[in-house]
Specification:
- It is a single chain.
- It is built from six helices and nine strands, in the order αββαβααββαβββαβ.
- Strands 4-5-3-8-9 form a five-stranded mixed β-sheet, with helices on both faces. The protein has a two-stranded antiparallel ribbon with strand order 1-2. The chain has a two-stranded antiparallel ribbon with strand order 6-7.
- It is globular and about 55 Å long.
- By secondary structure, it is of the alpha+beta class.
- The chain has one domain: Reverse transcriptase/Diguanylate cyclase domain (Alpha-Beta Plaits, 2-Layer Sandwich), CATH 3.30.70.270.
- Helix 3 packs across helix 4.
């Protein structure tokens, strides 16, 4: 019974497609970090990363390859950040990382590292490789932010990265 309860608890916060945390998990972590930021001034930043031309990947190569692209980005996120950082799939083809205790400069470096590592990765398909990339928007939390206001700033910057040509970071 205990094992089953543990498994169900894990599933409640896990995205099975990308193999990282899900939106519910990210919302819980954002709320926790925002509380710490407001109470003690503990800084943190968030990174939003959106797969470039994901619809085209799905339409051209099929949803199984699209899922493989999501797994690839999820794995890159999990491997390129610190153990104390929180990573997950925000929804669709959008991922988030929460980086506690960072400066804006560190957030910028981490965002660029993620973008670069994803751009160097490929998704194999029938003996060929499909290149994937992400556009990134990042923002530092301000005391008094709600997760919606913080997310809005990061999302606006993500949109600016898309508008500027994709496969780039805006902070």
């Amino acid at each position: 019974m205990r094992e089953r309860a543990k498994e169900l608890a894990k599933l409640a916060f896990f995205d099975p497609t990308s193999r990282v945390g899900n939106r519910r998990y990210l919302e819980q972590q954002l709320t926790r970090h925002l509380g710490q930021c407001s109470e003690s001034g503990t800084p943190f930043g968030i990174i939003l990363a959106d797969l470039d031309e994901f619809k085209k990947i799905n339409d051209t190569y099929g949803h199984a390859i699209g899922d493989d692209a999501l797994v690839s980005v999820g794995k890159t996120l999990s491997n390129c950040f610190r153990a104390s950082d929180v990573v997950g799939r925000w929804g669709g083809d959008e991922f988030m990382a929460i980086l506690p205790g960072v400066t804006k400069k560190t957030l910028a470096r981490a965002s660029e590292k993620l973008r670069s590592l994803v751009a160097q990765s490929n998704v194999p398909m029938d003996g060929s490789l499909i290149r994937v990339s992400v556009s990134v928007g990042a923002a530092m939390a301000d005391p008094g932010d709600s997760w919606e206001s913080l997310l809005k700033r990061a999302d606006q910057r993500l949109y600016a990265s898309k508008q500027a040509g994709r496969n780039r970071v805006t902070l």
